[in-house]
Amino acid sequence: MRCYWGEEDVWFYFEVDAEGWVTRQVELQGPELTPIAAASLDEWQQAHDAGRLDEYNGRFGITAELPVSEWEGHDPEQLTAEEFEEVWGPARRQIASRPHRPLGPADAS
């Protein structure tokens, strides 16, 4: 599914499981549809377990924290799995290919 947030000029693309939880999420911003996030819940959990959550979030972002059934003010458009993959693949490759600045002491919380 996908939806648009006009305030930030961002398209959100979501892959959801049978219970409505977001398993993968892509965010594309501006008229150029620049990828700003391409996060996977499975990868997020692995990063969490490995103590690398800040690094993962800083690079790929996070997925929505509520199931779709609890969203308010969103009217998402349904997409096929193939349509999601057409957005996921290029966005993920573009984000992964960007130079990533390691977190330094000033970034620690």
In sequence order, what are the helices and strands, one letter per element?
A: EEEEHHH
Structural class: alpha+beta
Unreliable stretches, pLDDT < 50, 5 or more residues?
103-109
DSSP strand count: 4
Notes on the structure:
By secondary structure, the protein is α+β, with helices and mostly antiparallel strands. The termini are far apart. Helix 1 packs antiparallel against helix 2. The chain has three helices and four strands, in the order E-E-E-E-H-H-H. The protein has one domain (2-103).
Q: Features of this protein?
A:
globular, alpha+beta, 109 residues, four-stranded antiparallel beta sheet, disordered C terminus
Give a short synopsis of this structure.
This protein is α+β, with helices and mostly antiparallel strands and 109 residues long.
Q: What does the secondary structure layout of this molecule look like, with pairings?
A:
Layout (H helix, E strand, L loop, with lengths): L1 E4 L4 E7 L5 E8 L4 E7 H9 L3 H8 L20 H17 L12
Antiparallel strand pairs: 1-2, 2-3, 3-4
Helix pairs in contact: 1-2
